[in-house]
Amino acid sequence: MSKVFALIKKEAHRQITGLEMIPSENYVSEDVLKALGSILTNKYSEGFPGRRYYGGNEVIDEIEVYASELANTLFGTKAAFVQPYSGSPANMAATMAVCNPGDVVMGLALTSGGHLTHGANLSFSSIFYKAVNYNVGKDGKIDYDSLERLAKQHQPKLIWAGTTAYPYKLDYEKYAAIADAVGAYLIADISHISGLIVGGVHPTPVNHVHIITTTTHKTLRGPRGAMILVTEKGLQKDPDLKSKIERAIIPGLQGGPHNHQTAAIAVSLEEAFKPSFKKYALQVVKNAAVLAKELGTISENHLVLKDLSELGFGLGYQAQVALEYAGITVNKNTIPGDKASPFYPSGIRLGTPALTSRGMKEADMIKVAAWIKRVLQEIKGLDLPTEQEKRKDFIKDIKKLLVKNKNLQKIKAEVEDFTKKYPIPGLYKHYGTKNRL
Ligand SMILES: Cc1ncc(COP(=O)(O)O)c(C=O)c1O
């Protein structure tokens, strides 16, 4: 047997015994895993249903049409493209469909919680397009007034309404008023919140935007992948939008679609129709609200952004490492107006989608928050050096220091014990790993 299976077993152990709190992660169902691991990976299918470059695609066509139909029904859209390999290529294809190189694109700044593909430095979105970023205000919320001013000034061809580290609801009506006033395409990138939208716990952008993009592997709880959805409003603005998106996907950007992934997306969309998914989405939000409150902040969705400045300077990385040693996985994150560094920022980003998939509820979030607070006590005094040249060595030493910390080891044991009550969905048993270790 391949060495890889031993490594998968090792990773399964990590996923079972720890608290996965990266807000963009989740546990997929056994059926999603089965479709993803199926023989559909064997087939080449360049093109679209009924229009393939290769023979033998009758069944693949049925699968792709089925996935698209499910997506359109679920999101209330007019066309659904399920071939993008992942969120970033979906966003690139959507941009290519509506912009020419050099056009102005506007998106929320990375440091304000935006995504790389919405116009960040070093991303295709600022290399091939003229990127203008808008920001959150002092209250941490999107500053729609400054967005409007910037839009009037720069006349973008495309405005992105989407976030990757933002704990509040988005006001798509405000976005639409701004985009319509300057004649821009408006794309909602709902990657983080698509499951919440389907579950009815976040407003849908469908009547306000021209295109929706989403990854399928976050709150939507599908395989890694993405979709581009065209709205009625999008077709009214541009009747050719569907063919422009098709051309951007192939030949613009991709070759053969990942049919196993398409099938797994279809399975996850079927699951998202079930009443149990609505309950899940509601619980994700309830859990995040409790978690945020316990940590002294606010969440209106699935995600908590915790500013650690009250504990010291630039503690995000140290917190990430300490939490990892305590069996709690989160990621370091910049906070609005961060005074530390984008690499070693002042906050952490955490969320409840994966824990909620294990069946955890509000009372569990209080326990989880208590562990997090105990861990954070252990990094007090480990402030990021203000002198740039000292940072590299300091960061190297952090791991060595924290790995020996007895309190973190004790918390890890408590966390492991706690996770025994909450099996993870999925095929763990196929890797020779029992959920109860
Ligand atoms: C809002 C948003 N868009 C796009 C992406 C990119 O997705 P992927 O990592 O699948 O390329 C992400 C991923 O974090 C995201 O949060």
Account of the protein in words:
With 437 residues, the chain is of the alpha/beta class. The protein folds into 2 domains: 30-272, Type I PLP-dependent aspartate aminotransferase-like (Major domain) (Aspartate Aminotransferase, domain 2); 274-431, Aspartate Aminotransferase, domain 1. The chain is 45% helix and 12% strand. The strands form 4 sheets. It has a 7-stranded mixed sheet, sandwiched between helices. Strand 2 and strand 3 form a beta hairpin. The protein starts with a helix and ends in an 18-residue tail after the last helix. The mean pLDDT is 96. It binds pyridoxal-5'-phosphate (PLP).
Fold blueprint:
Elements: H1 3-17, E1 19-20, H2 30-36, E2 47-48, E3 51-52, H3 58-75, E4 79-81, H4 87-98, E5 104-108, H5 124-127, E6 130-134, H6 144-154, E7 158-162, H7 172-182, E8 185-189, H8 194-198, E9 211-215, E10 226-230, H9 232-237, H10 241-253, H11 259-272, H12 275-294, E11 303-307, H13 316-325, E12 328-329, E13 331-333, E14 347-351, H14 353-357, H15 362-377, H16 388-403, H17 406-419
Parallel strand pairs: 1-12, 5-6, 5-7, 7-8, 8-9
Antiparallel strand pairs: 2-3, 4-10, 9-10, 11-14, 13-14
Bound molecules: pyridoxal-5'-phosphate.
Strand order of the largest sheet: 4-10-9-8-7-5-6
Mean pLDDT: 96
Full CATH superfamily name of the largest domain: Type I PLP-dependent aspartate aminotransferase-like (Major domain)
Using only CA atoms, what is the Rg?
A: 22 Å
Low-pLDDT runs? none
Structural class computed from helices and strand pairing: alpha/beta
* Backbone shape: globular
Q: What number of structural domains do the residues give?
A: 2
**Percent range for β-strand residues:** 5-15%
Bound molecules: pyridoxal-5'-phosphate
Give the terminus-to-terminus CA distance: 22 Å
CATH class of the largest domain: Alpha Beta
In DSSP terms (H or I, runs of 4 or more residues), the helix count works out at: 17
Total strands: the figure is 14
Largest sheet: 7 strands, mixed
Helix % is 40-55%
Q: In CATH terms, what is the architecture of the largest domain?
A: 3-Layer(aba) Sandwich
